[in-house]
UniProtKB/TrEMBL annotation:
NAD(+) binds at residues 30, 35, 86, 121, 263, 327. Pathway: Nucleotide-sugar biosynthesis; UDP-alpha-D-glucuronate biosynthesis; UDP-alpha-D-glucuronate from UDP-alpha-D-glucose: step 1/1. Substrate binds at residues 204, 249-253, 257, 320. Keywords: NAD, Oxidoreductase. GO terms for biological process: polysaccharide biosynthetic process; UDP-glucuronate biosynthetic process. It catalyses: UDP-alpha-D-glucose + 2 NAD(+) + H2O = UDP-alpha-D-glucuronate + 2 NADH + 3 H(+). This is UDP-glucose 6-dehydrogenase.
């Protein structure tokens, strides 16, 4: 079948390449000339496993092409898939500007009967409006219908998730549209769930928001585990054997990110408000996630005097492994806070560094600085503390002794629970994670309260150099902080 795809981001490009892989003739459309040339050369603008190989294979075999000429691409297409972005507005609603622009182009271009399929995540009822819009602006008298076909991709495994999907959701209002989509997906040999358009739109939001709820629930339970002395890893393991719960999305951490969960939870909450309904469960997931992203930073603030002058190793910048996507990544919440408080950051990520540099160029940044390194050991060398934000394989492969060997002070805040607490204890590392006890009573410690009480005495004893200018050369051991506090009490 002859298929056109509008948009060459995660949704559009992956869909187009996978359609070509099963035998369809595909033309992908984008407005960026540089991106089109990049795609024609077999280079993907996104980091996604196996994508470039399939791009080159299907381009060489003549089943896929890339163009800016939407009129030619849409003119005689049997089906046009819309995979453009629907970014979040400040109020949480979805911005449908790109959807409307593509719909207008389609109305101006098609010359034969055509099925328009919306793969982008859109609010319930959008497909109805797109169909009406296209028919209102049709230049040629042809039959056109709109169907909903939401994607369920996980970044880092998008190709596999398309070719080996658990199910294909198609939302149509006619037998003709349903049969067209069934034919398009027949070569995939996957389960197809056929529903009405609005149900298909809701399935997408309900699915993503349920997973976000599951993540936030486990993070909430993890925080309680720390208070009562339970271990979230053991709790999750015990829960996972219940088939009603399942084993996926039970890992506690520093919150969800990416292009889907944050946007889709806010969009559904906004939609509910527009209909006079409060979606309390989804709102709770959003609130928990917001707090969870900075929970380790807050722990570190209680643990230390200040970040001024400290070398802080940051391991992982992307929101998850297997992608270069930074959208809603925990690093974007924590690194600005560290820089504002004078930290000298040394950051490592195997694929996300170039994207992060666009946001935070290397060098001085506000009161702090940021340096990008090519190996995690470089970030750890002489570091006063370390934050782990992404569980990349190259980070998880680091043995506990590496932190002890390279760091000036082996103080680790692990947002992904990569390490075994006992192993970190044996290695002599002060280790803070999510929902588990810390590795041992800190050897190096000074709290904000101790700073307030003992500030004058600490300065006099030169245990902190240049505090007035914000330079801290070491983290004080507990016994020194306690001594400073006692001396201050005798004086005062």
């Amino acid at each position: 079948m002859k298929i056109a795809v509008a948009g060459t981001g995660y949704v559009g490009l992956v869909a187009g390449v996978c359609f070509a892989e099963v035998g369809h003739m595909v033309t992908c459309v984008d407005v960026d000339e540089n991106k089109i040339q990049l795609l024609k050369s077999g280079v993907s603008p996104i980091y996604e496993a196996d994508l470039e190989r399939l791009m080159r294979k299907n381009y060489d075999e003549g089943r896929i092409d890339y163009t800016m000429d939407y009129r030619e691409a849409y003119r005689n297409a049997d089906a046009i898939f819309i995979g453009v972005g629907t970014p979040e507005r400040p109020d949480g609603s979805a911005n449908l500007t790109y959807i409307a622009a593509v719909a207008r182009q389609i109305a101006e271009s098609i010359e034969k009967e055509c099925l328009v399929v919306v793969k982008s995540t859109v609010p319930i009822g959008t497909n109805d409006k797109v169909e009406q819009f296209i028919n209102d602006f049709l230049v040629n008298d042809v039959h056109v219908e709109v169907a909903s076909n939401p994607e369920f991709l996980a970044q880092g495994s998008a190709v596999r998730d398309t070719l080996q999907a658990a199910r294909i959701i198609i939302g149509t209002e006619s037998d003709w549209a349903k049969e067209m989509l069934m034919k398009i997906y027949e070569p995939f040999h996957l389960p197809i769930v056929a529903v009405k358009r609005r149900s298909a739109e809701m399935i997408k939001y309900a699915s993503n928001d349920f997973l976000a709820l599951k993540i936030s629930y486990m993070n909430d339970i993890a925080n309680l585990c720390e208070l009562v002395g339970a271990d979230i890893g053991e709790v999750a393991q015990g829960m996972s054997f219940d088939s009603r719960i399942g084993s996926r999305f039970l890992n506690a951490g520093i919150g969800y990110g990416g292009s889907c969960f944050p946007k889709d939870t806010k969009a559904l909450e906004y939609l509910a408000k527009q209909h006079g309904y409060e979606l309390r469960t989804v709102k709770a997931a959003i609130d928990v996630n917001k707090e969870q992203k900075v929970i380790l930073y807050k722990k570190a603030c209680k643990r230390l005097i200040t970040f001024h002058g400290l070398k802080v190793a940051v391991l992982g910048l992307t929101f998850k492994p297997g992608t270069d996507d930074l959208r809603e990544a925990p690093s974007l919440d924590n690194i600005p806070l560290l820089l504002e408080n004078g930290a000298d950051i040394f950051a490592y990520d195997p694929v996300g560094t170039d994207n992060f540099k666009k946001l935070y160029p290397e060098g001085r940044n506000g009161r702090g600085s940021i340096t990008y390194v090519e190996r995690p050991e470089e970030a750890l060398e002489n570091a006063n503390l370390c934050f782990i934000f992404t569980e990349w394989g190259s980070i998880a492969a680091l043995k506990p002794y590496i932190y002890q060997k390279f760091m000036k002070t082996p103080l680790v805040y692990d947002g992904r629970n990569i390490y075994d607490v006992n192993e970190m204890r044996k290695a002599g590392i002060e280790y803070h994670s999510i929902g588990r006890r810390q590795s041992f009573t800190p050897k190096y410690m000074i709290t904000q309260e101790e700073l307030r009480i003992g500030r004058k005495n600490i300065r006099n004893q030169n245990k902190i150099s240049n505090h007035r200018s914000g330079r801290v050369h070491r983290i004080l051991p507990v016994e020194e902080a306690a001594g400073a506090k006692a001396t201050s009490n005798r004086v005062g």
